[in-house]
Predict the 3D structure of the following.
Amino acid sequence: MSRLLLCICVLLFSSVAWAKPQQFYVGVLANWGHQQAVERWTPMMQYLNEQVPDAEFHVYPGNFEALNLAMELGQIQFIITNPGQYLYLSNQYPLSWLATMRSMRHRGTTSAIGSAIIVKADSEYRTLYDLKGKIVAASDPHALGGYQATVGLMHSLGMDPETYFGQTKFLGFPLDPLLYQVRDGNVDAAITPLCTLEDMVARGLIQRGEYRVLNPSRPEGVECQCSTTLYPNWSFAATESVSTELSKAITQALLDLSADNPAAIQAQLKGWTSPISQLAVIKLFKELHVQSPDNSRWDSVEQWLKDNRHWGILSVLVFIIATLYHLWIEYRFHQKSSSLIESERQLKQQAVALERLQSASIIGEIGAGLAHEINQPIAAITSYSEGGIMRLQGQQQADVESCIALLEKIHKQSTRAGEVVHRIRGLLKRREAVMVDVNILTLVEESISLLRLELARREIQINTQIKGEPFFITADRVGLLQVLINLIKNSLDAIADSENARVGKINIELDFKEYQVNVRITDNGPGLALDSDTVMATFYTTKLDGLGLGLAICREVVNDHNGHFLLSNREDDALGCVAKVYLKKRGSEAPIEV
């Protein structure tokens, strides 16, 4: 009994541990301090906990530096911040922008980030030009809604922010001390995010009449005075460690959030919308990184050469000698390698010729099927045209609608015949690989279409299964089509030559993974009698009239695509062979997983 109770306790503990949801941390820019950020965003995390099963979200507040470090250490998987920090981080880490915030104010606009340059109401400063040589305060040099937006304005006015102000004090977060410094006369002006002044007035911290905004403007629908252009609002982004399925679930939950939801009210937003263009922020960042040529390094080099003239001359001589030696080595290498390059070119031409010979061999084997496919549309065209002639001869007044219907049928059949010829010409005109975007599902359908008559004649069933969400690959269309035809034709011949009477079956499975597609062709033939390396060797064949090039060419073509080709017997204790082709997704740099 004691052992039984112990087992039950272990099972219960294991089930509880197994059911524990996965923990995720969402970095949040804490403009008004950590405590305010936690209070503001905790209901949003609770909302996501309810909407996304098996996941638990937590707030991770911090300033720019803290969030950058947390991202580097992998302590956060998501981040809610302004586009400025997002673009800064996206240059170092792969991030996916899921949704953009709709502001609680300003009629729910998605452009609500800007700067307000604030001075005391009784100061003598009227424009930004009056602040030349003065002391200003800002929260952070990386703050888009604050210092960076003001720098963009200064660039447009021809001012150099590095030298324009007498001193710039960065006070960090929260934002309250910025206006306190103006009030106490410690700084001449404060560069604050949009609505900072109005928020502090609403909280009873300051009096509105004691302050004034420089370069004031109020765009339509905006409730606060601003001094700069408005930029896109905060957004919700995910790191590359987050799965695609989880990102989709979170994005859907954010888009479904209504304005009257307690989470939206506490977060001071009207919901979320699809990510909006960041072109304005990108242009601003380009301006922020425009710098005049820096001559200080050349001055340092010149001074060093003056102080160490003999070492400088020696360094120049060593550099010239090393350069001449390098050029001489390159010349000798080019001279020696020219013959090797010519030999490689000839071998490549011979390989293409052999591949073309293999294509011609396949066309010869399926010639009867091709003739049948072409004869069918030609016979239909003849029948439709004769019927049309008889109809026109038997009627005094032509039936226009009937004639149009006949002509459409004739056009459809002629197009069908042209497609057959086009596919065959593509196989015969094999040339060097031309990489384009290819739909592999279409290639599979064309391969089956070319072999359809022979499959029917030998009563072999062929089925196609698709897993995952299909995508394009970058491939040589003709080469990959030849690989598929070779593999299907090999399975067809193996089943036909099998001594055991059975219903022939070929199954083609396409499994679309995140970064690659796995093509698996399985038959119920006799399987491989030898190991795969021997079977795929050049000029080795088990067919009486074979060339021994098919599988070797398949392996070469797949290797040219940076893919992987495997051939083996079935693993389910049934007779048959399995051909596996692994190909990368378009644009993927990830290695192939076998």
About this structure: Residues 298-374 form one domain. DSSP finds 20 helices and 20 strands in the chain.
